[in-house]
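HUMAN: Now follow token order:
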Amino acid sequence: MSSRLIGVGVGPGDPELVTVKGVHALRAADVVVVPVMDTGERGRAEATVLHYVPEEKVVRVVFALNERTDRARREAAWDAAGERVARLLRDAGSVAFATIGDPNVYSTFTYLAQTIAELVPGTVVETVPGITAMQDLAARSGAVLTEGTEPLTLVPVTAGAAVLKDALAGPGTVVAYKFGRRSGEVAEALRETGRLQDAVWGSALGLPEESIRPAADLDGAPLPYLSTLIAPARRDGSRGGKL
């Protein structure tokens, strides 16, 4: 039988936001892999998974999760992680990879799946969708993501503040991921485009250290790396105005 690698989205951190299908996939797999940084601390994916599967079923695999400057180090980490998961697939047959958010939205799972396709040909790759941080922040803050014909743009601020500013100049809602280290640039972009007033940011959603604040409070101080921003579309307040 073919090996199976299943990317399971476990949401932004609140264990109650893992889908029923996600829980079933985690429990049905022979092994559940969770990504960790080389510093070794427990990440959100691992903490969430441990609410649903026993610790002895979980395998921690090191990824260079935040490495953007040293390409050689990043590639070496991906290769080592791929080799580790390939061995698990050969031995266990069914491996679930738990990723925060959704496995098809800025997820390490994408790179792992590409590596496994080369190392273990014939492996069946599947994904189970997860709730994203922008959905969770919208629910917790009351920010409406889209109405009627409004577009929705998702921007990783690791791509640069100019990309965010271009998106904010458009007509729809803009969501920014991974902006914590560049919060000052984000605040400036919001002010310059007139999008500061209704914008909101959040971090550690669903966790004890959760913080949800108006973007107007941004003062340039560093925030958690995985902070999320929602800048709602410009609206006139009328019901169905964007239909």
Remarks:
- The radius of gyration is 19 Å.
- The longest helix spans residues 71-92.
